[in-house]
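TICKET: design request
STATUS: open
ATTACHED STRUCTURE:
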């Protein structure tokens, strides 16, 4: 089994990605994603937005 995790996040980009290099030269990209979710609570449709800050 691989020691890495996989995450699939589907949504809308909230702001422009920011790319930079660390002091050791490793590339890093930061961005934010908004993901919408709809569900029914007590027979009423509800919508919720979750925001995720991502750094890769």
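STATUS: resolved
RESOLUTION: sequence designed for all positions
ATTACHED SEQUENCE:
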């Amino acid at each position: 089994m691989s020691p890495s995790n996989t995450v699939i996040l589907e949504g809308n980009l909230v702001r422009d990605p920011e790319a930079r290099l660390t002091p050791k030269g490793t590339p890093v990209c930061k961005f934010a994603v908004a993901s919408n979710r709809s569900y029914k609570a007590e027979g009423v449709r509800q919508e919720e937005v979750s925001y995720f800050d991502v750094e890769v």
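CLOSING REMARK: The longest strand covers residues 27-41. The chain has a mean pLDDT of 93.
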